[in-house]
Amino acid sequence: MPTNDSRTLHLSIDSLNMRIVGVILATLLAQQASAQLADVDWWKTTTFYQVYPRSFKDSNANGIGDLEGITLKLDHFVDIGIGGVWLSPVFKSPMKDFGYDVSDFREIDPIFGTMADFEELAQGCKDRGLKLVLDFVPNHSSDEHVWFNKSIAREDPYTDYYTWRDPKGINETSGEPIPPNNWLSVFGGSAWEYNEEREQFYLHQFVAGQPDLNYRNPLVVTEMEDILRFWMDKGADGFRLDAIPHLMEDQTFPDEPPSNDPEFTPDQWGSLSHIYTADLPELYPIIYGFRKVVDEKQEELGRQMVMMVEAYTSLENTMKYYGEGDVKGAHFPFNFEFITNVNNETTASELKEIIDRWQNALPSGAWSNWVIGNHDRTRVASRFGRDFSIAAITMGQLLPGTAITYNGEEINMEDTWISWADTVDPQGCQAGPEFYEKFSRDPVRTPYQWDDSVYAGFTIPDSEKPWLPVNGNYEELNLAAQKQEENSPYAIYKKLTAMRKDMNAVKSGQLGTSTVGENIFVFTRYLQSADEKSVLVVVNLAENEVNADLTGVPTLRSGAMITYHVGVNSSYTAGQELSPSSVNVPARGSLVFLYTNAASTTVLASLLLVFSVILSLLH
Ligand SMILES: *[C@@H]1O[C@H](CO)[C@@H](O)[C@H](O)[C@H]1NC(C)=O
Ligand SMILES: *[C@@H]1O[C@H](CO)[C@@H](O)[C@H](O)[C@H]1NC(C)=O
Ligand SMILES: *[C@@H]1O[C@H](CO)[C@@H](O)[C@H](O)[C@H]1NC(C)=O
Ligand SMILES: *[C@@H]1O[C@H](CO)[C@@H](O)[C@H](O)[C@H]1NC(C)=O
Ligand SMILES: *[C@@H]1O[C@H](CO)[C@@H](O)[C@H](O)[C@H]1NC(C)=O
């Protein structure tokens, strides 16, 4: 009996050993696989940087930025450590909505340069290991697109490329045709424009010069998919899809009910509740179809592509863009939580809730992302002030997922006040002199501030006047000055992008969020390994410095933390060792620490030790 027992014991130990070997092998293989897949994941670990081409760099002194200007500044992207360059539209356009009205989806607008300039830019990116992402505006074309002319003339196959409807009747007072329903343009006024030649109205959810494409027509879908293929062949590494929720409308065209929001006048878009023109369930399969095209091209060209989606909609609808079941959608829809839900009044517990809610809403396996600002919304430094903007950018870079930066955020550029006379954004112009400041997006689109020379180095001194005025603060706030300054927004930004590249905790660490007292929000990106550092970010939402005791933070089991970056106005220096029991966090500021999950790794190490002792004793 005893012999038997010991044999059984040996057998089970052998099978245990085999299992351990198996686990080690599987781990090694997994590491091997993720090493091979490094480029596959570029879109996860990188920071995307949105370039607004009109305002980035003007190479030909006409006061408008261009592709050659971007090519001239490619080393800036490398310098600040971003890996994906996303261009706002550069396609041929009458510029009624500054490029978001495309008249030829396969041409570069002469304002921005030529196809050769595009190819040079794409090559320049490739040479530097940068990925190039294009804005794709699938929703509408310009009224100067040849498709629209042919559609007016009812020339097949273009007859139903756009959404045409008969007038509801004729206005007896004015003799004018009456629009099919009450739908309003995002920019104000009726969404319907009458065309004399075709004697029908066409739908335009933006300006009249942007007729909506008809996605219920499969020919339109195929046409747009071909355009995606065209640009990937030209060197694009993916797309950002613009204004997606508006892609389709209810095909029975009912009136929309009033929103009863007193903030809006009856001809403003916000005065209606957009139940028939936004978020229709039929639009998601169109997006999944685009993804299929992108994946097929990726396979063909052997280059990992990315597809990001812009959709201002509910959290539930946003998540549908990831796909459904096995059907893939976007790599990610933009996470606008920092733009739409975080403001100056947000408390620490609300911030935790906002972040947790997004992370918890992600479908299984979905990749997160954080957008801090863009060309449509008040700049982060103006939204939150110059101090909290740094905290917001720090969170955007260190929370799990892809980070997205709007050009100028890395130097904390601010909005520029623009007079009515200088206003050019259609959303501002259509609102009129009384309301334009509320609607115009010009303030966030002014030229990039490179240095303290005339026009902030955006163009040359004897250039034509820039298309939008340069911010008056450029002599003090510019890239060149910040390069000389320790702890400048630029210096902090670079440290953050470096962390994304270098630290596994930022690439794949678990997220832990908590609050300390009323005003401190804390998150950790933690790893169990004793060899690698975990990251701790501390954010103060109060207007005054707060002394925080972090010893209760659940995922911080370590005795000591090393200061990594001290944000602005901190008395600490980088590399300083601190005890978590007393940390001074500057007003509206953030601190970043590195720590080792010492306690847990010690437990693990001792467990391993005990285990191997038992094994050797048994043998
Ligand atoms: C469309 O028609 C208008 C007016 O007939 C003309 O000016 C324009 O050049 C045409 N555009 C295209 C792309 O054919
Ligand atoms: C008809 O035209 C008049 C004058 O332009 C306008 O006040 C009225 O609102 C219009 N009615 C309809 C039903 O469009
Ligand atoms: C997209 O098209 C829809 C309707 O097709 C329209 O409502 C929306 O405004 C358009 N958005 C953009 C950015 O073109
Ligand atoms: C938030 O606070 C900052 C600084 O205190 C201020 O500059 C900014 O205008 C405020 N933002 C809003 C939307 O009120
Ligand atoms: C740093 O503190 C000073 C003095 O309290 C303040 O004036 C300044 O705005 C702060 N800087 C930032 C970027 O918050």
Write the layout of secondary structure elements.
Layout: H1 2-36, H2 42-45, E1 47-51, H3 67-72, H4 74-80, E2 84-87, E3 91-92, E4 104-108, H5 115-127, E5 131-136, H6 146-152, E6 164-165, E7 169-170, E8 177-178, E9 192-195, E10 200-203, H7 218-233, E11 238-241, H8 283-301, E12 306-309, H9 315-320, E13 323-324, E14 327-328, E15 332-333, H10 337-340, H11 348-361, E16 369-371, H12 380-398, E17 402-406, H13 426-429, H14 432-439, H15 479-483, H16 489-502, H17 504-508, E18 510-516, E19 520-526, E20 534-540, E21 546-548, E22 561-565, E23 577-578, E24 583-585, E25 590-595, H18 598-618
Parallel strand pairs: 1-2, 1-17, 2-5, 5-11, 11-12, 12-15, 16-17
Antiparallel strand pairs: 3-4, 6-10, 7-8, 9-10, 13-14, 18-19, 19-20, 20-25, 21-24, 22-23, 22-25
The structure holds 2-acetamido-2-deoxy-beta-D-glucopyranose (NAG) (5 copies).
What features would you highlight for this structure?
25 strands; 619 residues; eight-stranded parallel beta sheet; Oligo-1,6-glucosidase, domain 2; alpha/beta; Immunoglobulin-like
